[in-house]
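The records we work with from here on pair a chain with its fold. Taken together, the tokens spell out the fold as the letters spell out the chain. To see the layout at work, look at the sequence and tokens printed below.
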Amino acid sequence: MSKRKQYLSIASLLSIMLGMALLGGSRGVMVPVLKKDFLIDDSSIGTMLLISTFGYMAFTYVAGSLIYKLGNKRLMQLGVLIVVGSLAIMFWSPSFMWFTIGYFINGIGNAFLIMGVNITTPLYAIAFQAALLNIIHGCYGLGSAIIQRVTGYFIANNISWRYMFLGFIIFHILVLLYVSFSSYPWQQEKKTKVKNELNKPKDKLLTNKMLYLLIITLGFGLMGEHGVNNWFVNYMKGGFNINENIGSIYLSLFFVLFTIGRFTGGFVLEKFGYIRGVFWVQVISAFTFTLGILMGTKGLILITASGLIQAIIYPTVMITIPRYFPNNTARAMSFVSIGVSIINNVSHMVIGYLNVSFGVVKTFYIVPFWVLISAITAGIIFKMSKNTDVNKPALEEI
């Protein structure tokens, strides 16, 4: 593959992540509007997020099988088509039930896209694969920062969210065309290696406590990010009567800092150590969140600023998995991804129900509590592997 084709195909992967950020990044700002339009409460929003996860989890394994039959390009094309269909259902939805069905289908499409992107990226013959993966995932944060501000503007100017969804559909159609005209590396030996690895026995893996420590660390760790993304605007509006337009500015700033952190944080961790870095980031985040909530409106900027360090959690934990499971890496990643999805979406449902029972301000304290749990398990992992090569930074093969 020529360098020009390679760069163009890499850019198409960036466009996929930007597309995924459109719905994922805007949903937090849209929560108050959806509640008003469909006459629902926070518990219904939490249930919708949980149902979406079932679609994502169930079809993660389906995508893993289909990629060997269809190839990475066709899998990503199928994923974009599914996402377009899901957005069309949400755009048309006459009731919240139909909106939830569309959201569920969107999770299926995202499962195909994430599988395609994550399998394709390491196949590029370049020296900075780890940096490339961080940049690609960093584009999700960049897209989130942009769309949150756009969503806040639309809502503040009484422009229906349905028109925004129409824009999402048009963008994904352009992404589909881009993917269709791009060429991707797809090596049979790489495909066979991953497929054989997935067929290895899973019994010993499921009895390894390190697997569950990583799931807890990443699952509750991501609540620092996802708790802000999904519930921060709702927290500001319900607790301090701050409208969606102003709330979207805080949320957009969070993801601007988040993107900067994702592009730069890896260099700090190379000096500091991966799991050790996760531990201290979560300790600082838990303290910052708690102080921010205690300070009321003056503390909103503290919660926003946490995005700068929260960015390193996902790529850092994921990059350590091959170290702990060198002989069963792909299956370990699959189980960690499923476990993390379960934790995150059950957590969102819990937040939805607690908002109804205790109010949005008191409920928001649960976010730093979950982040603290992540810090504790990260500390346990660090202690267990302190005197081994696992905890040393700069893993060249990744």
Notes: The chain is about 85% helix and 0% strand. The domain at 200-387 is CATH 1.20.1250.20 (Growth Hormone; Chain: A;). The chain has two domains: 1-196, 200-387.
